[in-house]
Design brief:
The protein has 538 residues and is an all-alpha fold. The chain folds into two domains: 7-279, no CATH class; 284-376 and 398-502. It has 21 helices and two strands. The chain has helices at 11-23, 31-56, 88-108, 119-135, 139-157, 163-194, 199-206, 211-231, 241-247, 250-256, 259-273, 285-305, 309-328, 336-360, 368-378, 400-416, 422-435, 443-472, 484-502, 504-519, 521-537; strands at residues 69-73, 82-86. A two-stranded antiparallel ribbon has the order 1-2. Strand 1 and strand 2 (82-86) form a beta hairpin. The longest helix has 32 residues, at 163-194. It is globular.
Length: 538
């Protein structure tokens, strides 16, 4: 790359960093100027991500060798240098993050940004950590960006007030602090054995280890995998998620929909890097597959047991993570492309669903769901659930309940995998690819995977139908007042899912190409290491 375009890979990290610093300067009372700065920074990140997406596909100049771009910070070569690596997968995740963040940010400006201090700087730091985690080609800096996004998420999950939020937030913080400590130990073991933390060089050196060194490396990889499984909300390490996400402010929970996918991304990235070195547990296929099935089962049980929509949404996030883990655990690359398609669809739908839930439940008392359960158990008629009019301000959009009903119904279809939206396309493609998997993939895997997807979808339909009736079939309830800044982002996310369904052919082709590029480790390593050394020589 030449000219200013050679610095494009660093922009998704620098833009939110500088935006967070600038947002600390104006007073909290200057809301319009601060909102404009945050929106401009997020839009710039989206533009940079879309540009990188086009460059990775070869649609925009310049052409990247091997469809991989390398940015060496300070022109230092590995193993001491830090490199950012942009391939198709990283570009997809950057674009998905920016699109979801833009919707959540606009939604928060309606009123949630004012529920506490420093929301906008923390939001930008969260984006910096997410973007850096997807871009880094260095294990230690993956830890650094994990800590940046986690530190920001600690503030965001506690944004606002309430004992429930503080309690759930403290559980979330403790779990992730323990995971961070394990991450450091794993990185130290891996560095002590291989002498490098550069991910491309690590893949090469791991294949040459033997004896006690290989045992230590496998131990470090096991600890590293446990950390990623915690981040991905895999069973049994996902007990913290439903309460933490459910207690968070709606725009925060919406953008948190992608946090579990950071763990999934890391597991996929290292599983492919280690594939030629004999992937250690839990990066091996069977480990990921059965972990994914167990996660789907746990999430399905949680969906059926939950009595609140926000908890159902949390368990559906767990189900989506389990689906991805099981898909990536299949032999070969046939399920990777459909799984990436499903990942994008589920993240967008989950983010929209958290916002829809908050809007739909305005004006209902805290005891409404408990009363509904009691009435169902004793066969009584439902009484008036809310005696207080909606206290939300803002200009009410026309036909608010009709919009919310349509948005809720669309989210149900997307998250349970019913036609005609992208959730159905993703699940259908996954099941079809599992059935047509290569001969070395056991037929039992395809059967278990297909049954898990169908049963989890059925459980989602049952639970969401039951709880949706309580929310929307309340004739005594006052229609909630919605602002355009709240309805617009939800509609935008759902329209993206609709476009993903109508453009399923081109989208699936891109994700299949992404899968082939991801599993071609030799091209990745061969591009990263010489590129970094060449830039150092200059």
């Amino acid at each position: 790359m030449s000219g200013w375009l050679q610095h494009l890979p660093i922009l998704p990290v620098l833009l939110p960093l500088f935006a967070a610093a600038l947002l600390l300067l104006p007073s909290e009372t200057r809301r319009r100027s601060r909102a404009a700065m945050a929106l401009a920074a997020t839009l710039a990140q989206l533009a940079a991500a879309v540009a990188l997406l086009g460059m990775a596909d070869g649609r925009l100049p310049p052409a990247w060798p091997g469809e991989v771009a390398v940015y060496a910070l300070g022109n230092w070569a590995p193993p001491f240098g830090i490199v950012l690596v942009v391939d198709r997968l990283a570009a997809v995740m950057l674009t998905l993050t920016a699109a979801l963040a833009l919707a959540a940010l606009i939604y928060s400006l309606a009123r949630w940004e004012r529920a506490g201090t420093h929301f906008l700087p923390l939001f930008q730091l969260l984006l910096m950590g997410l973007n850096g985690a997807f871009l880094t080609g260095d294990l230690f800096n993956l830890f650094v960006f994990f800590e940046v996004l986690l530190a920001a998420s600690y503030g965001l999950v506690l944004h606002g007030s309430g004992a429930a939020r503080v309690k759930a937030g403290m559980h979330y913080i403790v779990v992730n602090l323990v995971a961070s400590l394990i991450f450091l130990i794993a990185a130290a073991i891996i560095y002590g054995v291989t002498g490098t933390l550069n991910m491309a060089e690590l893949a090469q050196r791991a294949a040459m280890l033997g004896g006690h060194e290989r045992t230590l490396f496998d131990l470090g990889a096991l600890l590293l995998g446990i950390v990623f499984l915690v981040k991905a909300a895999a069973w049994p390490l996902n007990f913290w998620l439903p309460a933490a996400y459910g207690a968070a402010a709606p725009p925060v929970a919406g953008v948190f929909a992608i946090l579990t996918k950071v763990g999934v991304y890391a597991l996929l990235r290292f599983a492919t890097l280690f594939q030629d070195a004999g992937a250690p547990a839990p990066f091996g296929g069977d480990w990921l597959f059965y972990s994914g099935l167990a996660t789907i089962a746990a999430g399905t049980v949680g969906v059926l047991a939950a009595q609140k929509l926000v908890r159902v949404a949390g368990f559906l996030v767990i189900v989506s993570s389990g689906t991805l883990l099981a898909a990536f655990g299949f032999a070969g690359t046939s399920l990777t492309g459909p799984a990436l398609y499903y990942l994008v669809s589920s993240v967008l739908a989950s983010g929209a669903f958290y916002m829809v839930i908050e809007m739909a439940e305005r004006g209902r008392t805290a005891s409404a769901d408990l009363l509904a359960v009691s009435f169902e158990a004793f066969g009584l008629q439902a009484r008036e659930e809310s005696e207080h009019p909606d206290e939300m301000g803002g200009v009410a959009i026309p036909a608010a309940m009709a919009f919310l009903g349509l948005a809720f119904f669309s989210c149900v279809l997307l998250l349970t995998g019913l036609p005609p939206f992208s959730g159905f396309v993703g699940k259908f493609a996954l099941i079809a690819a599992a059935i047509a998997a290569p001969p070395d993939a056991p037929l039992l895997h395809a059967g278990l995977f297909g049954a898990a997807l169908l049963l989890s979808g059925l459980a989602g339909v049952v639970a969401l139908s039951r709880l949706g009736i309580r929310v929307f079939w309340d004739s005594e309830r006052q229609p909630p007042r919605l602002q355009w800044a709240e309805a617009g982002p939800v509609a935008g996310l759902l329209l993206l899912c609709t476009a993903l369904a109508f453009g399923a052919g081109p989208a699936m082709s891109y994700f299949d190409a992404t899968a082939r590029s991801l599993h071609d480790v030799q091209v990745y390593a061969g591009t990263v290491l010489p590129a970094a050394e060449a830039e150092t020589a200059e």
